[in-house]
Amino acid sequence: QVQLVESGGGLVQAGGSLRLSCAASGRTFSSYAMGWLRQAPGKEREFVAAISRSGGSTYYADSVKGRFTISRDGAKNTLYLQMNSLKPEDTAVYYCAADGVVVTSTHAGYWGQGTQVTVSS
């Protein structure tokens, strides 16, 4: 099992940047695919980004491509999401997720508590 704790959310103006972090604890961090999902009020949970166990492959939702970058640091057991050029539409609770196989909008073995990102116009 793995425990996930997100941090780095906050309030930012449109066009600004934030970096989210997800500290993972538990055995064999490198054995898990990791990802970020988000949920805005009144909307379904959606996939944001994912990264393979090795960090060699990354995946992004079309809505964030070119603006967000997912990365992982195995030595620190930490997942990151660098968010640039933020838009009001990015406002949501962002969740760190981990899974032994894949993280999708509908599946993840483990979840963090979420961190609020609010982008003002």
Q: What is the beta-strand fraction? A: over 45%
Q: Count of helices? A: 0
Shape: globular
Roughly how many Å is the radius of gyration? 13 Å
Helix fraction, binned, reads under 10%
pLDDT under 50 segments (min length 5)?
none
Coarse structural class: mainly beta
Overall strand count? 11
Measured between the Cα atoms of the first and last residue, the distance is 40 Å
Helix-strand pattern: EEEEEEEEEEE
Largest sheet: 7 strands, mixed
Mean pLDDT: 93
State the main characteristics:
121 residues, mainly beta, seven-stranded mixed β-sheet, 52% strand, globular
Describe this structure in words.
The chain is mainly beta and 121 residues long. The protein contains no helices and eleven strands. The protein has strands at 2-7, 10-13, 18-26, 33-39, 46-51, 58-60, 68-73, 78-83, 92-99, 110-111, 115-120. Strands 2, 4, 5, 6, 9, 10 and 11 form a seven-stranded mixed sheet that branches. Strands 1-3-8-7 form a four-stranded antiparallel sheet, with no helix packed on it. 34% of the residues are buried. The model has no long low-confidence stretch (mean pLDDT 93).
Helices and strands in order:
Blueprint: E1 2-7, E2 10-13, E3 18-26, E4 33-39, E5 46-51, E6 58-60, E7 68-73, E8 78-83, E9 92-99, E10 110-111, E11 115-120
Parallel strand pairs: 2-11
Antiparallel strand pairs: 1-3, 3-8, 4-5, 4-9, 5-6, 7-8, 9-10, 9-11
